[in-house]
Design brief:
By secondary structure, this protein is α/β, with parallel strands linked by helices. It contains 4 helices and 5 strands, in the order αβββαβααβ. Helix 2 packs parallel to helix 4.
Amino acid sequence: MKIGGHIQNCLLLRALMWLLNGAVKFNVDGSVLLNRVGCGGVLRNHKGEVIAIFSGLAECFGAYYSELVAVKMALNLFKETNVFGKTRLVIESDSQIVLNWLQNFSTRLWKCWSLFEEIDRSLKEIPGTVTVFCS
């Protein structure tokens, strides 16, 4: 298991939450149907209790873009919760490509660059954030 990288097995997630001593987890997702694009997320504590939730429409640039918007919204919402600064954040996504973009600058799409900059600023404000791939 590599902290700060991608974890391939969802069964390891509970162990990860325990290892991070009560971390909270944001499940995020983006989706596209024809030209309707949406995204959402649920923030839960290590007991599975819901702390925050969001959903909404995104610009129609595709599924990966909507997943990135979901990550951005999750980070912004996390900073507004009462657990910000008190525990570590785990972001879980079913898009291995998007999580790879967050880790590797050289693979990022130029058309999403301003969105990546916003996400990077938020990640600097939330040190120790872990990304998890779970299909």
